[in-house]
Amino acid sequence: MYRARRPWQAATALSRYCMAGRSLKTGGVQRPVPYATIPTRFSSTRASARSGIWIRTSTSSSSSSSGSAAAGDGRGKASKATRNNLILMGPPGAGKTSVGACLAERLSLSHVDIDNDHLENIWGCPVADKLNLVKGEQFVHEEGMATLQLAPDITNTVISLSGSNPMHRQAMDHLSSIGTVVYLDVDQQDILQRLQAMKVNRIVGQTEGDPMDEILAFRQQFYERAYDVRVIIPSGSDVQTCADVVIATLENHRNLLAGYVSTRCSRGDESAGLEDVVCSGLASDGGLFVPRYPIPKLTDGQWRRLAGLSFPEQALRVLENWLPSSAISPTTLRGMLAKAYGTFQGSKHSVTPVVPLKSCRTPHGQQVFTQELFWGPTASFKDLSLQLMPQLLQYFAGKNKYAMVVATSGDTGSAALHGFGSHTSFPVVVFYPGNGGVSSYQEQQMIGLAAQHPHCRAIAVNGDFDFCQSAVKQMFSDVAWRDDLLESFGVQLNAANSINWMRLLPQIIHHAAGYLQLVNDGRIEFGEPLDLCIPSGNFGNAMAALYVKRMGIPFHRILIASNVNNILEEFISTGMYDLTQRSLAKTMSPAIDILVSSNVERLLHLIAHESQNPSHIEWARRAFFELNRTRQFSAPADLLAAISSELAPVSIWDEQCGEQIRDLASSEQYILDPHTAVAVAGCRDGKIPASVARVVLVAGTAHFAKFPDDVSAAVAIPEHLLSDLSGVVPHTSLQGSLAASRQADVVECSASVDDMKRIVKSALLQQAA
User: Fold this and answer.
1) Residue 110 · residue 200 · CB < 8 Å
2) What is the chain's alpha carbon radius of gyration, rounded to the nearest angstrom?
3) Using CA atoms, how far apart are residues 640 and 657, in angstroms rounded to an integer?
4) How far apart are CA 687 and CA 451, in angstroms?
5) pLDDT score at 721
6) Whether the predicted pLDDT of 372 surpasses 90
7) How far is C-alpha 477 from the geometric centre of its chain's CA atoms?
8) Distance separating alpha carbons of residues 300 and 305, to the nearest angstrom
9) Angle at alpha carbon of residue 642, lines to 607 and 285, rounded to 5°
10) What was the pLDDT predicted at 267?
11) Whole-prediction pTM
12) For 693, which of 65, 410, 440, 529 could close a Cys bridge (C-beta 3.0–4.6 Å)?
């Protein structure tokens, strides 16, 4: 049936470079469909992961016992056959044949080129001759039917597809059932140059007069829906480089199967799968989930390929390196991202536009830019995660029921209420600090959103955010109470704060996007270091920046900007995290009014494990136990040195914050919210040492309209006249959002964990009724 370019042989090497594929969701044989009418959703198959070996199933896999839509933990039916096949897919000129031969040589595998070794044997003539005889849709049909004759028991082989194979749905179902489909994502300019060099002037589906670039763009939809693993090929790569990138990408996807571990786990504890992490929120020992696998890394050339893409497309390519396709298919993830970010109203058609603050320079001459992260429906950067997270939870939850219990300093609450508002199967209870612990607008926004959704509640607690967050953690740690909820209501707890890994992970995207936009706009060259300044309370946004730095974005220094509640400044400067003499102060930047920064626990875990020092790893594991017990801990000197080499702390008082808002409103008619003002003032603070970076990018975390009282006072303009400033862009999602709150009352609660538990149970009773 075909000529193998190498003798058949066992391929132990391949198991080192593999990951899980996709499990069949829709079965049955379908009639060939003309390529122009094939629906965009591809009915694909997944592989289960067993000991790092490619495993394919030829029949539909059952769902997991939890009812998950995609269980990647091998709990489906046992597979009928084991395959160690890599199937290379991509457009004509992507290098599938040459890269496939190189991979086969390096991995000691056989190689089959679908054109030369299979189709020509079936047809008895060169593929080019067949294409001259049979045109367009008929060629796709005959090619697909011939591809179905590829031996189903083929194994230990790299299979190089034709550029038109993915246009035949039934053939791709067959191919996907015998191996893992690897998409060689090659820059279109490289494709055009290669086709020109090969003197290829017509490809399948192209009629006379059709420009080559347009037919390649049309074909893209078929490649995008049919792969298990995308390999981003750097522009100008030769065959050996392409093979290197394929192997590195497969190695990364294999690593993802290691799962997640609690920051407080002892060595050797079992890891959790992605589904458990998404659906649990907090580890059972009170720790936070972190990856057990090495942080994925992209090369400079791969990052450059992302620079000109839209935010959702950048998000897809970044998250594909963190989320195995055994857990969620790229097609499904793409749809979620389109829905999550489709309603953001950023300027320049950007979800998170980067704008220069022309009058702002640091004392060392650095130009200051801000990345506007607040163009989502509730006008804060929390929307970037909380428009995506509910979709992921619904996908993984299956038939299981979850109650979202949220502690908020203001913005997370409204973002969670909006994000979960359309998901009525997830009751949401938000606890926020009352008595001025959030801005008046933030409170009205939460009350209004809760009033619009019967399954949602917003509760003002007579305490500060630290108490709210501590109380929520205690609820998660109370096994007996959680068991009672499960028995009485069939409901499990989950969290929407950044203590939940799936709330934090999407924040990696906007940090990468900010750097890439500066590159795309010509403000910096790729590879040039960049300083990042983040107003930080719970340290989640800063933690995401540290992760993306390790992915290969060259942040030089991350400035951590605090207000008078400067526990982070004290810790990064001295190594002491000491709450014994601290009390929380209310400021005009309430999201930073936090003393127990939960994600510092992830920071300690990361730095300690990078040190590879067992004593440091054990210290980091116990640090937050010690903080809960004695209200303080002290970091080892060399760990502190590692932390301070990446992070630079600064604190800004309310007076300085107000001055910064006033200065920019006067000089540029650009209005900052108080949190972004803390960061802008922080990077201009004279105490910050000089940097090798020419540019500072400030995380603009909220729209000023959410803080009308403080902003109006700072600029000395009545609140109703703020929008008259010519430089101010209104946030249309906020217009009219207070109407529902005028019909609702503030619901208060004492600073008591037991009272908060009763409110959660009351909400579940109401949901059940």
Assistant:
1) no
2) 27
3) 28
4) 46
5) 65
6) yes
7) 27
8) 9
9) 25
10) 65
11) 0.88
12) 529
